[in-house]
Amino acid sequence: MQANPRLQALAVLIGEWTTVGAHPMVPGKTFHGHAMFTWLESGAFLLFQSHIDEPEIPDGVGILGTDDATPDAGAMLYFDVRNVSREYRWTISDKVWTWSRDEASFSQRMVLTIAEDGQGIEAQGQMSQNGQAWEPDLQLTYSRVS
Description:
58% strand, 10 strands
């Protein structure tokens, strides 16, 4: 298999990261974990794995791919330890990677700003339940390990 050239904008993510963050539904608690981004099938797809040490945030996995009809964008299929399965749409532009899901019962979006040196990422999540206003969701800071 050969590398998918449409995923190359995400190559900066490849590697292992530590994460530190917070969630507004668990005030005053700091979450610690790690994430890993690796190529699947020689770069045909991107695998995203995340783990948070504290049990309030689920471990999850996502597989990112592209569709020829949407330049600089694609889809991420996500699954986590709660048996939650979701499809998100993603875009990347100028070191800002965004993924989102727009569903009537539960919408979610995450804006990940990649540091110029590629060694850190600031992630700001938001959610909307049952069409209500957007509110803060998981916030994470990623620091590159390798």
